[in-house]
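Order emerges. For instance:

***
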Amino acid sequence: MRAMVWAGLGSAAMAALVAACAPEAPAATGQYDFAALCVDCHGAQGKGDGPLAAGLTPRPVDVTVIATQNGGVFPKARVMSHIDGFTMGRGETPMPSFGDLLDGETVLYDSGDGIPTPTPRRLVALMEYVEELQVPAAE
């Protein structure tokens, strides 16, 4: 009887049933993308001490002090430009560009210049996660 039920399902119905049972892919959040793309070099805390860091020249930067090194201001547009590869080739860096962050949904985002610009949602999310990792300057 069970075989007859399965045989009676059309291919579209079967595909829908299989898709409904498949595990959902995790949503790409800034934290998820950092873990997937950045941790190997920058480390889980962003200190530049990931498992691959020792073999890289120059070593990965400590992304937790970007604001401190910029007078206490986190340079959102500059960080996104670096992540997406726009600034690659300007200096010696083994950091790859992450063009896949540029695919998909865009959001209007004002990075501080007062101009909302269509920007890839995943790129904004990753930059905002790096911004959350900032540590205050030592007194």
Q: What stands out?
A: The helical segments are 2-8, 11-21, 30-37, 39-42, 76-84, 121-132. Strands lie at 106-109, 117-120. Residues 60 and 95 are 8 Å apart (CA to CA). The chain has a mean pLDDT of 81.
